[in-house]
Automatic annotation (TrEMBL):
GO MF: xanthine dehydrogenase activity
E.C. no: 1.17.1.4
Enzyme class per UniProt: oxidoreductase
Keyword Oxidoreductase: yes
Residue ranges annotated for the Aldehyde oxidase/xanthine dehydrogenase a/b hammerhead domain, each copy included: 16-128
Pfam families (UniProt xref): Ald_Xan_dh_C, MoCoBD_1, MoCoBD_2
Name of the protein in question: Xanthine dehydrogenase YagR molybdenum-binding subunit
Organism superkingdom: Bacteria
InterPro entries referenced in this protein's UniProt entry, alphabetically: Ald_Oxase/Xan_DH_a/b, Ald_Oxase/Xan_DH_a/b_sf, Ald_Oxase/xanthine_DH-like, AldOxase/xan_DH_MoCoBD1, AldOxase/xan_DH_MoCoBD2, AldOxase/xan_DH_Mopterin-bd_sf
Keywords: Oxidoreductase
Organism: Streptomyces rapamycinicus
Keyword Oxidoreductase part of the UniProt annotation: yes
Gene3D superfamilies attached to this UniProt entry: Aldehyde oxidase/xanthine dehydrogenase, a/b hammerhead, Aldehyde oxidase/xanthine dehydrogenase, molybdopterin binding domain
Length: 743
C-alpha cells in the first residue's frame, strides 16, 4: 500500500462537515465565550484599567486583567524548545508590543463578550518603542545559535582572499518582509474543567508541546492536562506552539469552573501569533569565468523580539547547496518591540533561497552562462561545510529533468527580448534544498480480536494527509485491507510525538508505525509458530507473508483474528519509536536533505508592470513517497507559497505604534485561484534514502516553497531586464525600470 495514490480516508468527513475542529467541539456542553482586549500602544505601561462597565454588561461572567489573573509559571529557558515552555499572560502592566492582551472578557455569547470588550477602559503611559527595522538595523547582536540549534556563523577557507581573487563577482543585498503563516482556521481553543483536570480542545501542531506549555503555565501536573486536536485547519508553523487564546481560555475555565471558548479574530492573528522576521541579506559570490564558485558568503540581519529571541536559520541555506572552497555565513539580530518571530513555512530556506538563488541568477547573467549549467558546475561531491557525504542527492537530475520537461532551451537568451502583444515574456529557474529532520515519536498499534488494527499517537493532521498515509503504512505493515485500519490521532493521552511541522511529521510517525507493526508481527508469529494448534506451528517465521488479514508461511496460513482470539482474547499491541536525530549516527555521518528544481514562465504587462505567472514546473528528489496524490498536493501548495513570497506577501508596520497596518486578507495578499494558472505541476523522481529512516522517505511539506519564489523573480528579470531585490516584487518597484516600448 505504501506508494499508492490512495484517496484521503478523512475526505468524506471533511466534505460533509463532520470533521471536528477546535472551535466546534460540543461534548463538554454549552461553553462561555472569551474575547481578548489588546493594547493600543506598542511600548509603555498601563496606568489605569477600569472594567466596571464591562463587568456590568449583559451576559458577562468575568473580566480578567493583570490585576486579578492567578499566578502562573515562568517561561523556563532551560527547556530547549520554545514550544514546550510556559506562556504566561496578563502578568503585569508593562506593554511589550501592539495588540498584546491586556484583558479577557468572558460572557454567555461571543457577541456579548465582544461588545463588552469595547467597554474596558485602559489608559497608558506610552514609551518610545523600537518599531522600524531600517532605523535600528545597525544595532545588532550575535545569537548563541539559530533555529534548530544550528551554529550562528560558519567559516571555511579564507573568504576574503577567495572573493578578492575571483574573476567575476556578485555582491548584492536582498530584503524580505514580515510574513505570516495565515492558515484558513484561526487559532482557537476551548478549555473544559473536568474535576482537577483540564480538557483542552485546541488547534495545534504538536500535542505534547501544547500539554507541557499549558501545564507549565498553570503550574499543573501535565498528566492532568488532556489535549484534544483531531483535525487542524492548517498550521504552517503558526500552531507549533500555543498562544494567548489557549492560556487565557484555560485560566478563565479554571476560575469559573465552566468550559470557555476563545478564538482569535483574523486581525488579532497578525498581532498575537508571531511572524517570519523581516531580513536584510547580503549575498556575495565569487567565481571564475568558467562559472565555478571560488567564494560564497551569506550574511543575514533580521528582527527579533527583545524578550523571546527567535533567529531564523536563513543563512544556513547555502551551507550544503553549492561547492566553493571559501565560505562564510552569519546571522545577526536587531531587537524590536514587535511580536516575536516564529517558524513560518520552511523557516530559513524560504527567505534564504529567495536571495541566494536570485544572486546565482545574477552571476549567470554576469557570466553569460545558462543558469542551469551554472548550478550543475557547482555541484559538490560532499557537504562542503561539514565534509561528510550526502545520504542521497539528486539535484542535478532534478535540474536536467526539469529543464527538459519545461522546454528550457526556449528561454529568451537576452532579458526583455520576447514580447507577445502587450506582454513581456520571461523564463526563470532555481534550485531547492531543505534539511530533513527527525524527532522522538512513539506510535502504538493494537490488533483487536476481530482483526481490526487501531493505530494511536498524539501526532496531528494539519491537512496534509496524515490519516491517509498512516492507514497505508499500517495496512502494509500488518497485511490488512485499508478499511480494517483505524487511525486515532491528536490526543495527549496517546503516545507522544513531535507532531506536524518542519516536514518531519510524516516520516517520524510512519517510521515509528512501521517499527510498531514489525514488533506486533513478531508477537503474532511467536505465538502461532510455537502453538501446536496453529497451522503455522513449526514454520520459519522469517518466511512469513502478511496479506489480506492472514499470515502465510509456505503452504500454511492462518487468519490474524484467529491467532489473536486464541492467544490474546482482549487484543494485542506493540509500540514503535523514532529518536531525536542528534542520537542517530546517520545524521552526523551524512548530510540528509531533500532537493528540487523550479522552472517558471511569467508575463509582464509592458505598460502597467502587472505580473502574471503563466506556467510552473518543479521536479523533486525526496526519497520514497508514501502517497503520490497527497505528495503532489503538498508540493504544489509549497510552490504557490513561493509565488506569494515573490510577488505579494508583505506585512507593513506602522513605525509610530508597531501595529501591522494591513492585518486582514484585504491588505495582506496571498495567492488566490486567479493568481495561479492551471499549468502548474510537481514531479517526483523515484527514490529511496536508506540513511533517512527504515522506509527511505524524507519530508516533503516545505521543499516545494524552497527556491520557488526565486524562480519567479528570475523570470521577471528575464522578461523585463529589471532586477528587484526588495521583495515582494510589486508594481511600483518594477514599473519605473521597464523598457520603453515602441508604439
Amino acid at each position: 500500500m505504501i506508494g499508492q495514490a490512495v484517496n484521503r480516508v478523512d475526505g468524506p468527513l471533511k466534505a460533509t462537515g463532520r470533521a471536528t475542529y477546535a472551535y466546534e467541539h460540543w461534548e463538554a456542553g454549552q461553553p462561555l465565550y472569551g474575547f481578548i482586549v489588546g493594547a493600543t500602544i506598542g511600548k509603555g505601561r498601563i496606568t489605569r484599567i477600569d472594567t466596571e462597565d464591562a463587568e456590568g454588561a449583559p451576559g458577562v461572567q468575568l473580566v480578567m486583567t493583570h490585576l486579578n489573573t492567578p499566578a502562573q509559571g515562568p517561561r523556563d529557558e532551560s527547556i530547549p524548545f520554545e514550544y514546550w515552555r510556559a506562556q504566561p499572560m496578563l502578568t503585569g502592566p508593562d506593554i511589550h508590543f501592539y495588540g498584546e492582551p491586556v484583558a479577557l472578557v468572558v460572557a454567555e455569547t461571543f457577541e456579548q463578550a465582544r461588545d463588552a470588550a469595547d467597554l474596558v477602559e485602559v489608559e497608558y503611559r506610552a514609551g518610545r518603542g523600537r518599531f522600524d527595522f531600517g532605523e535600528f538595523e545597525d544595532d545588532t547582536y550575535i545569537p548563541k545559535t539559530v533555529n534548530a540549534g544550528l551554529p550562528t556563523d560558519t567559516a571555511v577557507g579564507d573568504f576574503d582572499a577567495g572573493f578578492a581573487g575571483a574573476e567575476v563577482k556578485v555582491d548584492q543585498r536582498y530584503t524580505t518582509p514580515y510574513e505570516f503563516s495565515m492558515p484558513i482556521e484561526p487559532n482557537a481553543s476551548m478549555v473544559a474543567p473536568r474535576g482537577e483536570d483540564l480538557v483542552v480542545y485546541v488547534s495545534c501542531q504538536i500535542t505534547d508541546a501544547a500539554r507541557d506549555s499549558v501545564a507549565g503555565t498553570l503550574m499543573m501536573d501535565p498528566e492532568r492536562v488532556h489535549i484534544v486536536t483531531p483535525f487542524v485547519g492548517g498550521g504552517f508553523g503558526s500552531k507549533l506552539g500555543i498562544h494567548s487564546e489557549t492560556i487565557l481560555a484555560a485560566l478563565a475555565a479554571r476560575a469559573l469552573g465552566r468550559p470557555v471558548k476563545v478564538t482569535l479574530t483574523r486581525q488579532q492573528v497578525f498581532q498575537l501569533v508571531g511572524m517570519r522576521p523581516t531580513s536584510d541579506q547580503r549575498v556575495r559570490l565569487g567565481a571564475g569565468h568558467d562559472g565555478r564558485l571560488a567564494a560564497i558568503a551569506h550574511d543575514v540581519t533580521m528582527h527579533t523580539n527583545p524578550d523571546v529571541e527567535y533567529a531564523e536559520q536563513t543563512a544556513a541555506t547555502v551551507r550544503s547547496l553549492y561547492a566553493a572552497p571559501h565560505r562564510l555565513t552569519s546571522h545577526r539580530l536587531t531587537a524590536l518591540d514587535l511580536p516575536r518571530g516564529t517558524d513560518v513555512r520552511a523557516p530559513g530556506e524560504a527567505p534564504g533561497m529567495l536571495s541566494v538563488e536570485s544572486a546565482m541568477d545574477e552571476l549567470a547573467e554576469a557570466l553569460g552562462m545558462d543558469p542551469v549549467e551554472l548550478r550543475i558546475r557547482n555541484e559538490p561531491t560532499v557537504d562542503p561545510e561539514r565534509n561528510v557525504p550526502y545520504s542521497d542527492r539528486h539535484l542535478v537530475e532534478c535540474l536536467r529533468e526539469g529543464a527538459r520537461r519545461f522546454g528550457w532551451e526556449n528561454r529568451p537568451a537576452a532579458p526583455a527580448s520576447v514580447r507577445e502583444g502587450r506582454w513581456l515574456i520571461g523564463y526563470g529557474m532555481s534550485a531547492a534544498i531543505r534539511g530533513h529532520f527527525q524527532g522522538p515519536t512513539t506510535v502504538r498499534v493494537r490488533l483487536e480480536p476481530d482483526g481490526t488494527a487501531v493505530i494511536q499517537t498524539d501526532m496531528t493532521d494539519i491537512g496534509t494527509g496524515t490519516y491517509t498515509i498512516l492507514t497505508q503504512v499500517g495496512a502494509e505493515g500488518l497485511g490488512l485491507p485499508l478499511e480494517r485500519v483505524r487511525i486515532d490521532l491528536g490526543r495527549s493521552d496517546h503516545p507522544s510525538s513531535w507532531g506536524s511541522g518542519g516536514s518531519w511529521g510524516a516520516t517520524n510517525s510512519s517510521t515509528a508505525l512501521h517499527r510498531a507493526c514489525a514488533a506486533l508481527r513478531t508477537k503474532l508469529l511467536d505465538a502461532a509458530c510455537g502453538d501446536t494448534r496453529s497451522p503455522l506451528h513449526g514454520q520459519d517465521p522469517a518466511a512469513a507473508v502478511f496479506s489480506d488479514g492472514n499470515v502465510a508461511i509456505g503452504g500454511a496460513s492462518e487468519a490474524l483474528r484467529e491467532i489473536v482470539a486464541r492467544h490474546h482474547p482482549d487484543g494485542v499491541e506493540a509500540e514503535g519509536q523514532t529518536r531525536f536525530m542528534g542520537d542517530d549516527p546517520n545524521y552526523s555521518d551524512y548530510s540528509i536533505n531533500t532537493y528540487g528544481a523550479h522552472f517558471a514562465e511569467v508575463g509582464v504587462d509592458a505598460d502597467t508592470a502587472e505580473i502574471r505567472l503563466r506556467r510552473m514546473l518543479s521536479v523533486f528528489s525526496v526519497g520514497r513517497v508514501f502517497n503520490p496524490k497527497t505528495a503532489r498536493s503538498q508540493l504544489i501548495g509549497g510552490m504557490i507559497w513561493g509565488v506569494g513570497a515573490a510577488l505579494e506577501e508583505e506585512a507593513v508596520v506602522d513605525p509610530r505604534s508597531g501595529a501591522f497596518v494591513n492585518r486582514d486578507f484585504a491588505g495582506y495578499l496571498v495567492p488566490v485561484h486567479g493568481d495561479i494558472p492551471a499549468d502548474i505541476e510537481a514531479l517526483v523522481l523515484e527514490g529511496y534514502d536508506d540513511k533517512a529512516n527504515d522506509l527511505g522517505a524524507k519530508g516533503i511539506g516545505e521543499v516545494g516553497i524552497c527556491g520557488s519564489g526565486a524562480a519567479v523573480a528570475n523570470a521577471v528579470f528575464n522578461a523585463t531586464g529589471v532586477r528587484v531585490r526588495d521583495f515582494p516584487i510589486t508594481l511600483e518597484k518594477l514599473l519605473p525600470g521597464l523598457p520603453a516600448m515602441a508604439a
